[in-house]
Write a structure and sequence with these properties.
66% of the residues lie in helices and 2% in strands. With 476 residues, the chain is mainly α. The chain has two domains: 167 residues, no CATH class; 191 residues, no CATH class. A two-stranded antiparallel ribbon has the order 1-2. β1 and β2 form a beta hairpin. It is globular, with a radius of gyration of 23 Å. It starts with 9 loop residues before the first strand and ends with a helix.
């Protein structure tokens, strides 16, 4: 599941929208840092003087032999684990070796050469990890996008030109014509299908033209050639967090996240081992077997969160101090809390592209109405974009009742959560001991709800899910 997180609710205090770092509703004003990360237009945030970026970045990139050796040893051990446990395919081992080897050189380069070197390796890596024809076509299309965006014409004409290219490629993906290799479409989609939306949104809200180096560093990321299921990285966040603190701290956090991702992928193997690789509800002959099946089906998401941690951890090695992709989603205590945890990048994507535009358009008609309509829009777009993503990977759109009902029910539950939280603010808050006592109950309730919904979403059709849930009763 690429995008299982949809939105973050905002409310208003003293007439200003707020966004909660730990909740859907917060009482603090929208901070400039959050707004910059989400790409909110400048009029919605207070202006602050720019920090001296370049000098700080160069200081943060200063090398240290001892700390480098520690990082190098950790990466060598990680690569050894990848190899010994056959964590992924040989292409993954090769990609990881190239990434780590690039870091060993990148670390010692003068600061002004670091990003150009990383971009050069990432772009050239396409020819190592992909078919040469696919790599050539991929880079050619990317450069064509950049040249179109640099044209001295109105922005809407540039967008329409990109849309025409996308339409032609969508037709090619649907018909699988012989002129373009079939393996081109999943990689193209993994790189451009979502990030081009973010890039165009950010480009529309700034006056400076696009620059080649940031463009290439954003789209042509070496791990993306292998991972077609890729976190939706925000362009502004990627640029803003570049060497925003000491490189050893950034890289060490990346190593930690890669270890976490490795552990999650190993746990995923256990889940696959104990769970049916195919949808076989006939084997669910008892209540215990049903519970185990529901839990194991939900835990299949470890495959996604594990890969996301590996990807972002690798990017940390090159100074991109990106935020966490998933945060203890099994401990979510509400549906809104789940969306804040299970895919943070998708949540930020939806807040930026869908939630904020709808909310600010409707807020004059009432805060609650704006929140509910914006939340509904987020889930509608999420449902549509899941089908869009499935199309690029498999060549056809996914339109099924389980998928439609899953996102519809989830959207309604989150909207109900929004109403409850907005009303709860006006009521007497719980005491600290009541909050601590209720928290485990809420976590367990959310886990049960999500395992049930997830099993429904994973079913091929409605009848198969009903059969899965009831077969154990009729088998006695």
């Amino acid at each position: 599941m690429q995008s299982t997180a949809a939105t973050s609710t905002i409310t208003a205090t003293s007439g200003s929208p707020t966004i909660g770092a730990k909740g859907w509703v917060d009482t603090q004003p929208l901070s400039p840092s959050v707004s910059e990360a989400l790409g909110v237009p400048a009029r919605t945030v207070s202006q602050q003087p720019p920090r001296q970026v370049r000098g700080a970045e160069e200081v943060y990139a200063a090398p240290n032999v001892g700390r480098f050796l520690v990082l190098a040893a950790e990466l060598v051990l990680l690569l050894l684990v990848f190899h010994l446990f056959h964590l992924e395919t040989r292409s993954f081992i090769l990609m990881s070796a190239v990434v780590f080897g690039t870091f060993f050189i990148h670390y010692w380069l003068p600061f002004r050469f670091k990003e150009p070197f990383w971009v050069t390796v990432s772009t050239g890596g396409a020819f190592l990890l992909l078919d040469p024809k696919v790599a050539t076509l991929l880079i050619a299309v990317g450069l064509a996008f950049f040249l179109i965006l640099r044209l001295p014409v109105a922005f809407q004409w540039r967008v329409l030109s990109l849309g025409a290219i996308f339409a032609a490629l969508i037709y090619g993906c649907a018909t699988r014509g012989p002129s373009i290799p079939a393996s081109f479409y999943p990689v193209f989609g993994a790189i451009f299908m979502f990030r081009i939306i973010i890039y165009l949104y950010d480009l529309a809200h700034r006056t400076e033209p696009p620059r080649l180096l940031p463009f290439l560093s954003y789209f042509f990321l070496l791990p993306n050639y292998y991972f077609t299921l890729f976190p939706v990285i925000d362009f502004q966040t990627m640029r803003r967090t570049y060497y925003q603190r000491d490189i050893h701290e950034i890289a060490q956090q990346g190593a930690h996240w890669m270890v976490r991702g490795t552990i999650q992928l190993m746990l995923y193997r256990l889940v696959v081992y104990f769970n049916d690789p195919y949808y076989l509800p006939d084997r669910v002959t008892s209540l215990g077997a049903l519970i185990a099946t529901l839990i194991l089906t939900y835990l299949m998401y470890l495959n996604v969160s594990g890969k996301f941690h590996l990807v972002v951890g690798m990017l940390h090695l090159f100074g991109y101090d990106l935020p966490e992709t998933n945060r203890r989603y099994l401990l979510a205590s509400s549906f809104s809390d789940m969306w804040r945890r299970i895919n943070i990048y998708w949540k930020d994507f939806m807040v930026k592209i869908v939630y904020f535009p709808v909310y600010f358009r409707l807020r004059k008609r009432g805060e609650r109405r704006a929140q509910l309509f914006a939340t509904a829009a987020v889930f509608l777009v999420t449902w549509a974009l899941h089908s869009y993503q499935f199309f690029w990977i498999h060549g056809q759109f996914i339109l099924s009742w389980p998928d439609t009902i899953f996102w519809g029910v989830l959207g309604l539950l989150v909207m109900a959560n929004v109403l409850l939280e907005s009303r709860g603010k006006r009521q007497q808050p719980y005491s600290s001991w009541q909050v601590r006592a209720l928290k485990p109950v809420k976590i367990l309730g959310m886990f049960v709800a999500m395992t049930t919904l997830w099993s429904f979403w994973s079913a091929p059709n409605l009848g198969a899910w009903v059969y899965l849930m009831t077969h154990w009763i009729h088998s006695h």
